[in-house]
Queue: 4 jobs
Job 1
Amino acid sequence: MTLTVGRRVRLTADLRLAGQVVPAGEAATETGSGFLALAAGVEGSVERVDEGRPQSQEVREYERLKSLLDDFGHQMPPGSRQQLEEQVGSLEPAWTAYQERKLRLTVRVRFDNGFVLDDAPGDLFTSL
């Protein structure tokens, strides 16, 4: 099933959302003790779809150094190039693990009752 913006969806599992409720744009200051429950079967429309893999610091550093090596490595002094190649090599396991990780699909859904659920896993919903 492909989730796209504007598609009607139905929640497939009961959800319990715990934490502090704050107006949009304001930062949460402390953890609240309340919760909100959403029952399976609630319907709404997809407002946003995000696909991605969360990147660690090591992955971002690998991308930066690898780009530097690919673009300017041929111009570098041999010692500097070797050092950069070693740094890239040491980060390759993190890069490989990142590439093998499954894409994370999250959605923002506006339910028919007006409630908005943001950054929810896409596999919690089915298309109508």
Job 2
Amino acid sequence: MLVGAELQTVVDVRRMAGLLPDTIFDYVRARTDPVTGGFLSFDMDVYTATDEELAAEVPLDFVRAALPAGVDGEEFVHALGSGPASVQWEGRWPDEPKLGS
């Protein structure tokens, strides 16, 4: 399962970071360095950044290969804010005995 979301607010980012530790966040829209013109990647630590620092960076998005053990799809859905999100299943639907679904 592949999950992703666009997080519109600081609260959204903090909630998702709490649910999905070690998730790599990035800018929704490409940003460039004003001097070099090179593309910028989001590299702030969302766990130590202040709300004010994060507010200057949102919206952020992420794509993750799988939900961590112990986190189910319902928890993911409840953690979403108002931005768009996606869940991509591969394999047999809905009966996949190896996955317990």
Job 3
Amino acid sequence: MPRHSASRALAAALGSITVAVLASGCTAAANTNDAGPTPSTTASTTAPASPAASSGTDADLCGAFGDVLTIITTAENGRVTERMPPQEYNGWLRLATRVLDRVPLSGEGQVTEAIRTLQELAPPIPLGTDGPSEIGSQEWWLATSPLYEACDAAGFPVSAESYIGG
């Protein structure tokens, strides 16, 4: 199976899991920290500014998005298999919002626009703070389709890996 087909299959499966969880009556609380507020022990509670001024090629953008997918799918696998408690899962999702925010947009093109849409759906959650995110939500997964298509058309299919310890 080509890498991009496997990535699409994984994204579709995770999207289906999300849909199934939402349909079963679970709320968006799955993306909140059930353990309460996270104490701030860092010197800074704000994330670094987004590198909007820097530019990346379509290959850079598609590759960087694969890293975001690796974080999300690995966290989701850990949550679903009950190897990861909700607090850790939510921490990984918060990290994914910051990594997504740091994808270096080129300012133009279908790949850039697709990533910009995903960034708008899931803005970065700064270090030392807590809050829900739309990253990994059904709406967010549905919005990834244009990015997969744009990366395929540009010749840089999105790929990710997923792993979980045990």
Job 4
Amino acid sequence: MREGLGGHLAAVSLNPNIDLSVHDRVFFALGAGTVPVFDTNRFSTAEMPHRTRYGFGQDTTSIAAAVEAVLADPAAAQAATATTMSELYPRFSMQRSLQDIHEITMSIAGAAGAGLLPAEPVPAGVWTPKQAA
């Protein structure tokens, strides 16, 4: 995905973000040096302040304004993207995410995963809550 994005000035994501993070496509765009244009939320405002001109609300006017800001000054948009990437990495890198996922998985493996080998399928009902009789 990064290779494909790297040839473009910007990538617009219209999927609404959750308030505490952003979609992976935003991180892919940053990693490719492509300006991510996406909806602004609490996380992006706090962690990505240099790219606020390229964020939008969930309305067509602000989406158009964010895209127009990129097109009006592509060099500034790319500089904001580079600065954002350097400030986010390595705190929000894929390696860090995988380490966190591994730690979480190891901490919850306990009883539910005690009898499972990594290559075996999960037996029916292991992750389903027991129903009251």
